[in-house]
Here is the input.
Amino acid sequence: MNTNSMTEWAKSYSWKLIRNQAYGKYRGYYFTVFDTSNIRLVLTALPSLTESESVDIYRAIEENKEGLRIVEHGIFKSCGNLLRVSFTEATMKAMTQEDIGSFFDQITDLLSQLGISATDNCFICSSDFGTQETLFDNILVPLCGTCYDHLEQEYIKAEQEFSSEEKKYGLGFIGALLGGLLATIPWILLSYHGWYVGIIGFLIMFLSLKGYKLLGARIGILTPWIVGGLTIFLIVLAELVANLLQVSAALKEVFDISPSLGQTFGVFIELLKDSTTGILRGVIINLLIGIVIGLAGTISLFKDMKLNINKQVDAYRVARA
Here is the structure.
C-alpha cells in the first residue's frame, strides 16, 4: 500500500500488506483494501444477504456518503456478496489514521445497526462449520473446507486447460509479421524524408499484435516474445530500407546511375562511418526511440497476457490468508 496512513493503520490492527492491498478483520467483519490508480477500493465480504438487506445497505451508505468521504458504493454479487466503496486518491491521502479508523467504525456501526452482523459463515455456502480466513480472487473472505477444496480443484483444472489450449503460434507469427510490415510503411516514408519517427515503433508493435490475433492465434506465454521480437526486427528493417532509399536516390541524382542494392548498401555503410554526415546519429535516435516505445508496448502485453490467464483461472484461485 502506498498510502501511509492506511498502511500504518492496517499494521496497527495486524492486517496483512501485499503490494497494492491490505486485508484483515475489523470488529468481526472481513475487509480488503486495494490501492489502484487514482482510486482506493474497500471491499467487505458479506456472505449472506437478502435483497431487502442489500437495498437497506445501499440507502444507508448513500445517506452517509458525504460523511464517509466516498465517491462510489454498491453491493456486488459473485459467489457471495461484496460491499464495495471507493475513495479518490486525494481523499485517502488526506486522511489521518484517526480518519481511517473513524471510517471503518462508521461502516461497521452502520452494518450492525441494520442487523447485518459480523459472521464467519462461509462466503459461498453460508455454512458456519470450520471456516478459515481465505484469499478468494485476492479478496479476504471466510471459506469452509469443502468450498476451499472445491475451488482449489477447479483452479487447477482451469490452469491445466489454459496451458494445454492450442495457441496456434505459427499462424500468430505470420499475422504479426504481416501486421508489422504494414506499420513499417509510414516509418519508411517519414524517415526517408528526414523525420524522426521512433514513435511509430508503438504502431508496429500494435499492428503486429493485431495481426497475431486476426489469424486466430491465442495469447500464450510465447506471444510477447513473438510480437516483441518482430517489433525490433521490423523497426531495424524499416530504418534500413528508408536509409537505403535515401542513398539510392542521392546516387542517382548525383551520378545519374541506378545503383545495385550491393552498391547502395556499401555507400550507406561508408556514410555511417563518416561522423561528419550525422547519419549514424539520426539512425541511432530513430532506432532507440522506436525500440524503447515498441518494447514498452510489449511489456504491457506481458501484463495483458497475465490478465488473460487470470480471467480464465483466477475465478477459482484461493489461498489461505
